[in-house]
Amino acid sequence: MDIYERLKQDHEVQKEISARLADTTGDSRDRRQLFEEFKAEVEAHAAAEEQTFYGALIEKPDGQEKARHSISEHKEAADQIEELTDLDMSSSGWLQKFKTLKEELEHHIEEEQNEVFQLAKKLIDDEKTNQLAEEFDQRKAAEMK
Ligand SMILES: [Fe+2]
Ligand SMILES: [Fe+2]
Hints:
By secondary structure, this protein is mainly alpha-helical. The protein has five helices and no strands.
């Protein structure tokens, strides 16, 4: 498996957890559990993605702009996750805010898969892409601990 397939796998997991979370109501056990799952998954993915995939892309002069853009979106998502953590789950604003984050995350995923991966495939050689997938797994596992 190369890094592109590996990241896509994670993106599917994120979309699935987000869809289930958007269906929850109030300060319920489901919402609490799914939000914890969402946070851990999204944050570990972003950290490992930056340490491996974007680390390799940013080394290429032509990859720097897209890498920086994606990393700034990770920061924005992390800020929104923090705000949601501090917000009362039973308030009507919580779900509204989560849905905004969900949409932005979906947009981020689409951009990665449709634009960033295409560019990276031209800049990073094939041999390296399998190695990056292995490194990604290791880093993500370490982040999840
Ligand atoms: Fe990302
Ligand atoms: Fe990603």
